[in-house]
Design a protein that fits this description.
This protein has 178 residues and is α+β, with helices and mostly antiparallel strands. It has helices spanning 17-27, 33-41, 64-80, 142-149, 154-158, and strands at 8-10, 45-47, 51-53, 88-89, 100-106, 111-115, 125-128, 134-139, 168-171.
Length: 178
């Protein structure tokens, strides 16, 4: 699934099965297959020069569970000060935000989240705009999102001014232990 996704790529610290299982236990739901494969193949890093996907692991800055909790708390705190706030959700399911689990962020401040629907092997991916108002469909799974961001669909995901993103992955440096 992930071989050939990026024309130019260097993997970062990858997540093992124990890391993935621990994250599933802490989050309370199974991680999608496309994401699990991404974590094992590419690991922590910057995809397409614009997208940081959080992965389970010891580094708080890139850890999935830490990042998901921080994003949900931060967004919740901002929205608590906006009692009349309404999300502008693309499509007809405004409840998608209620099932959100944040797992990534773009360089422009958009949040990536899964629509966690129990019993599904994959969760749709949605993008919450940096304005915390617009919610756009990103892809059927992580691989679909990455493909769509590299083509004309990027404008529907990141906004009409966006251009297709480069086919790159730059892995985070692997920490040196002494």
């Amino acid at each position: 699934m992930w071989e050939g996704m990026f024309a130019d790529g260097v993997a970062g610290p990858v997540a093992g099965e124990a890391d993935l299982a621990q994250a599933e236990g802490e989050l309370g739901f199974p991680l999608p297959a496309s994401y699990r494969a991404f974590c094992r193949h590419w690991g922590a890093g910057l995809a397409l020069g614009h997208v940081r996907v959080l992965t389970p692991g010891p580094e708080p800055e890139t850890d999935l569970v830490t990042g998901a909790e921080l994003a949900a708390h931060s967004i919740g705190a901002v929205l608590a000060d906006r009692p009349e706030h309404r999300f502008e959700v693309e499509g007809d399911d405004g409840t998608v935000v209620e099932r959100a689990c944040f797992f990534g962020r773009t360089e422009a401040g958009e949040f990536l989240f899964w629509d966690v629907v129990p019993g599904r092997p994959e969760y749709e991916i949605w993008v919450l705009g940096a304005d915390l108002e617009s919610v756009r469909f990103g892809g059927a799974d992580l691989a679909d999102l990455m493909r769509r961001l590299q083509g004309p669909a990027v404008r529907g995901i990141l906004g009409m001014g966006a251009s297709p993103l480069p086919s790159t992955f730059v892995g985070d440096a692997i920490p040196v232990t002494h």
